[in-house]
Amino acid sequence: MLINFNLNNENVQVDVNPKKRLLDVLREEFGMTSVKEGCGKGECGACTVFLESKRVNSCLVPIFQVVDKKVVTLEYVKSWEAYKILENSFIENGAVQCGFCIPGFIMSTVSLFNETDGKLNKPMIEEKLGGNICRCTGYSKIVDSIYSFADDNAFLMKIKEGFKDEKQ
Amino acid sequence: MSIKRSELRVDAKEKLNGEAKYVRDEKIPNMIFGATVRSSISNGIIKNITFSKDYNWNNITIITAKDIILNKVSFLELDMPFLAEKFVRYIGEPIVLLASNDRDELNEAKKHVFIEYEEFPSIINLMESENSEIKLYGSNNIFKEIKINKGDLESAVVEAKHKISIETETGFQEHLYLEPQGAVAIPEPNRVTIRGSMQCPYYVKNALDKMFGGEKKITVIQTTTGGAFGGKEDFPSLLAGHAALLAVKSGKPVAMFYDREEDVRYTTKRHPSKCFYTAYTDDEGLILGLDIKLYFDGGAYSTLSSVVLSRGALTSIGSYYIPNARVIAKAVATNTVPSGAFRGFGGPQAVFAIEMLMEKIANELNISPLEIRKKNLIAAGLDTITGQLLKYSVSSKETFNDAIFMSRYQEKYDEFKKHNKNILTKLNNGDYPKDNENDKLKGIGIGLSIHGSGFTGTGENKIRGKIRCEVKDDGKIEIFTAITEMGQGEKTTFRKILADALSISIDEVLLSEVNTDLVPDSGPTVASRSTMVIGSLLVEVADELIEELTDILNTENEKGFVYKEGYFYDGDKIVCFSEAAKKIKGKHLFKEYSHPPLIKFDDINYIGDAYPVFSWAASIAEVEVDPVTFETKVVNFYTSHDIGKAINHDQVIAQIQGGCLQGIGYALYERTEIKNGKFDISGFNDYIIPTLTESPNFYVNVIENPYPFGPFGAKGLGELPLVGAGPAVASAFWMIFNKEFNKIPILPEMILEKIFEKEGTYVD
Amino acid sequence: MKNNNEINILQPNNLDELDEILISSETKYDLVSGSTDLLVQEEKWLTYKNIIDLKSVKELSSEIIKTEDSVLIGSAVPFTEIINSELIKTNFPILAKACSMIGSIQIQNRGTLGGNVGNASPAGDSIPVLCALDSNVLIGPKVNGQFRTVKLSEYFTGFKTSVLTENEYIAYFSIPLESRNPSNWYFRKVGQRFSMAISKVSLALLIWLENNIVTKVSISTGSVNAVINRASKTEEFLIGKNLTDETIKAAVEIIKTEVNPIKDIRSNIEYRRHIAGELLKEALVLTNKP
Fold first, then answer.
1. Which terminal CB of chain A, N or C, has fewer other CB atoms within 10 Å?
2. pLDDT tens digits, residue range B179-196?
3. Who contacts A30 (Cβ-Cβ below 8 Å, separation ≥6)?
4. Backbone torsions φ then ψ of B635, nearest 5 degrees
5. Residue B267 DSSP symbol
6. Residue C113 main-chain phi, psi, to 5 deg
7. Is C195 on the interface with A (CB under 8 A)?
8. Contact between B520 and B482 (Cβ < 8 Å)
């Protein structure tokens, strides 16, 4: 089946089995390797992408459900200014170990700021990033990397810019 | 030379932006996929394998045991086959391999392979193995038995005032690395190249060398590895073997990519244990003698069970001084997936047992949990279970005192006891136990732990880890080692050690990819050995380079050059390291490790220096229990670790936090049992590991008590954090409920059951 | 083996298009909503050939509307929309709370009430709350311009089975406005951990008091019966009573007889039964507190 959708701000078309998972289409047809399969059942968050600006587990979305919709992956988000700041924070805080969960964590984090307008406290971060599992770090340094922007309005504006850009 | 406090991880950026290539991310032309047909019975004989006639097999490559030259996976013993041939020993044991370019077709084809068995009764429970009529291994199903005797237990029994016993039990633990197992085999006429997620490329190479009987040249390349924790120590040899067999037969690159369900069902787990401890003490709780029996469930094949058991036995007295002891440890066979390596490697089971014994003695003799530990704590000048006299880098007391101070243990212990009293009384009376909705039972617990650095016994001297360094044209130094990065920070640590030893920038040190054609056998990336063993070789490399370059400069200039902070200088001249190094560009330096000669161990009788040095930790867990639902949470976790020297401080903290959380998971959430012959889990939804919400606030202190033979004084780190976390958490439950908690994980169901035990009271 | 061509996907834009397909066709259709429960059930998903995507039906995937006597929620509205809906937050905060405890944010952005109920799992987190809210299920396609209406408490016929017949779909959940403004409401889900947890036991309660006397109460539990239903004996017992310690203790004993839990990988019978009682105790005790 021919599927048209918008991927990272470009209109694309693929001819695939319509039941194929968005995860597989992104990885196999478009080489988007930031989208990782950790469980295939929506339980680890490693395959998190944005569908219509909302974070979803791409392993649980059949491709026919993205027809004419907008999909954004880290491959696109990494060009955002907000990403660079976040990347730096994760590096400075030593929040990365094996790295397999990290692209999903970044996507969830970016989304979290968008969802909450940046008004974050630690319990909220814990609760709202609960869908992303990490086995290496003990999460502490990941939270540190994010918490430093909890009330940083300039950072929030950059996140919003990214999402605005994506909607054009 | 001096060590910088911290260096940013060199691999963080590419992992963050998604560009790091894990094995599934690589584009390998013409690659097809492999699948495994597995045993559906726990024990029996394969009578017949049939491939249904009405199915079109043209597009499918098939491998059975008959296709394999040497059908044994080379670990310590040759007992486990790559594919079962005559008999099967566990549900899920690989029997047939299939490969195709179409994964849907592969799933269909699997349904057309029919295996006929003669089924035998099986052994599932580890305590039934030794005396079972069913024989899985040798005459008594014992893979390994270890006996250690110290002092004179009989006289301690006579002298003692109290005899206090405990039985402890720990279950399987699944690694649940985020990246499931995966390997690709790429065939060439006389060669097979393996690319995969792994800890120990030379284990894989050796296994495949043997499997092909030397007919193929084997190259093993480690791809970016998404977590391992021991789970990618032994298992990848089997997986890569499967991929290689299919690749050679099909003539195409073959990927063996497990999905999560296949991974959790059929790959190794931590050995379940049953431990029986009887302590003989005086009136004050001083242990005079200790009688220990350990049973580890090795599963269907021996794999690494003998060495896991060995570490368990050697760690069985924990951080304590026991003058008279007897240890009998057995690893037994059962009809379950072979148990394998897992961070801690026998230590967590043994340390849980000894720490729970401490709780029990404290409880029975009415001594505080702190006091009982303090009284029996080992110290420099005392000897271990093998008679190893501790002479240096002993921080049992320092970590103990530090953790207590940091956590304000005693103050909180008293405060929490008082706080809980009211809640427990109401619980006793069947009243609603809370004063307000957020009211919780509060506990504080302590756990001490110890971990021997490097291989057990004479292991290091047998394996003799090797590295090579090469001086590049621009004066940079490249390190070649088979030690792998799996998330723990090795790439940064090794470059940092050499850079700091030379007082140069980390950018002037390079690290080769892990490819067995390029790197020498440094030994496996296991046993908390990498930093201590390979790190010390890197310091030797630095010393040799400085010495050689000083000599060259002296000869050239007829002067006396001195090396300081990255520069060689004399009265007139100053030359930076890389400039000087260019003079020897192309030079290779080889180093090989063995223990300092004063480390001596008798492998047969278990006497002497079991490890060159131990790392020490004391942990305090603050736990909350909801008195309505008995849901648990560790809210604060304090730990003090002595690892000799922190090579990369920030990443040391990160390792400790991550390891402790795995220990917390082990204590509170992580469970799987054998149901109808197989693991009752399928992935993240039913094997419960902590998410962010279950992660406590961590307070980590690193004490630096240098090991004289380690690089900058460093000793082992990686496993220790996991070992002591579980017991600290369990200790908090003894404190809250005043009852025996001798089994982990401590699930709310178990707490409820304890509360309804009629005997005894849970209010102090 | 290849079956791309056999798979037929229909994405009707609105209810009229949807009903037209279902009424006129003899094909048996498989209905898909947020996919979060479906794609993890590989065997079931493999059998899906003629698929109708309910997410594409505008009314079902977007509408949360107030009628004269109820609030209608489209069966394919994602949980996130329900959680953020002012209409729901004001009238039925208990439902917003329950939806916010499902899976993770990623799941909430896709998952739907229709999927939760349609999947008919006794562990579906929204179901006890919908049940306690006395919800109706509006089932399409419309016959003579009318949805078939079934009480949620009568919707399930057994473990994972329901009154839904072939080519019927859940269109809306209708929550009566009478379920607004209880004196107290309570929802608690007990899982193996906080996030990403499947419940071991959950309990939803809405209670109305006048002069400290219970005038109306609705209670529903999750994961402790093959079919999620109202705890009607407990409810009957409580009506007309003052919530004294004795009454509460007696009610706890009654509800323990109304649950019939099983042992599975997540928990055991004893725990589930005991905790169902303790949750009721908590709900009632907290009702008494100012």
1. C
2. 999 999 999 999 999 999
3. A7, A12
4. -95, -40
5. S
6. -65, -40
7. yes
8. yes
- How far is B701 from B652, CA to CA, in rounded Å? 10
Residue matched to tokens 């999905």 = B259
Rounded to a whole number of angstroms, the distance from the CA of A138 to the nearest CA of chain B is 4
Spell out which residues of chain B touch residue A145, defining contact as CB-CB under 8 Å. Answer: none
Chains contacting B (3 or more CB pairs within 8 Å): A, C
* Beta carbons of A54 and C35 less than 8 Å apart: no
- Cα–Cα nearest to C149, from C177, C173, C121: C173
Chain C closest-CA separation from residue A107 CA (Å):
11
Q: Cβ of C104 and A54 within 8 Å?
A: no
Q: How far is C192 from chain B (nearest CA, A)?
A: 7
Contact list in B for residue C188 (CB cut-off 8 A) is 629
Looking at residue C253, its amino acid is E
CA angle, corner B285, sides to B282 and B291, nearest 5?
75
Tell me if residue B750 falls in helix, strand or coil.
helix
Distance from CA of B685 to the nearest CA of C (A): 7
Q: Is C13 on the interface with B (CB under 8 A)?
A: no
Alpha carbon distance C107, A55 (integer Å) = 9
Any residues with CB less than 8 A from the CB of B76 and at least 6 apart, and which?
B302, B303, B304, B306, B307
DSSP code for C27: S
pLDDT(A42) > 80: yes
Q: Residue C92 contacts by C-beta under 8 Å, 6 or more apart in sequence?
A: C71, C133, C175, C179, C180
Give A12's strand partners.
Answer: A5
Residue B126 near residue B142 (C-beta atoms within 8 A)? no
Q: With the C-alpha atoms ordered C110, C111, C114, C115, is the resulting torsion angle positive or negative?
A: positive
Interchain pair B680, C192: CB under 8 A: no
Integer-rounded Cα Rg, in Å, for chain A is: 15
Q: Is B133 exposed, middle or buried (0-12, 13-18, 19+ CB in 10 A)?
A: exposed
Could you tell me if B171 and B673 are in contact, meaning their C-beta atoms sit under 8 angstroms apart? yes
Q: Which residues make beta-bridge pairs with A50?
A: A55, A72
Residue B545 CA to residue B535 CA, distance in Å, equals 15
Angle of helix A102-116 versus helix A81-92 axis, rounded to 10: 120
ipTM above 0.90, yes or no: yes
User: B249: closest CA among B483, B64, B17, B441?
Assistant: B64
Predicted confidence (pLDDT) per residue in B526-554, tens digit: 999 999 999 999 999 999 999 999 999 99
Sort out which chain A residues have CB atoms less than 8 A from C55's CB and list them. 65
The Cα B444–Cα C157 span in angstroms is 48
Of C193, C245, C268, the CB nearest to B749: C268
Considering only CA atoms, which of A4, A9, A49, A59 is closest in space to residue A165? A9
- The reply to whether residue B748 touches residue C271, judged by beta carbons under 8 angstroms, is yes
In one-letter notation, the amino acid at residue A37 is E
Tell me the Cα Rg of chain B.
Answer: 27
Among B749, B752, B753, the residue to mutate for chain C (most C Cβ within 10 A) = B749
Q: What's the mean pLDDT in B397-412? A: 98
Which of A3, A19, A59 to probe by mutation at the C interface, max C CB count within 10 Å? A19
- Give the DSSP letter of residue C184: E
CB-based contact, B753 to chain C, within 8 Å: yes
pLDDT at B764: 38
% of chain B with per-residue pLDDT over 90: 96
Report the amino acid identity of residue B105: E
- Euclidean distance between CA atoms B742 and C89, whole angstroms: 46
Q: Is any Cβ of chain C less than 8 angstroms from the Cβ of A68?
A: no
DSSP per position, A91-153: HHTT--SS-TTHHHHHHHHHHHHHHHTT---HHHHHHHTTTS--SSS-SHHHHHHHHTTTT-H
Which residue reads 């982990």 in tokens?
B744
Whether residues B18 and A34 touch (CB distance < 8 A) is answered with yes
Q: Is the CB of residue A166 less than 8 Å from the CB of residue A9? A: yes
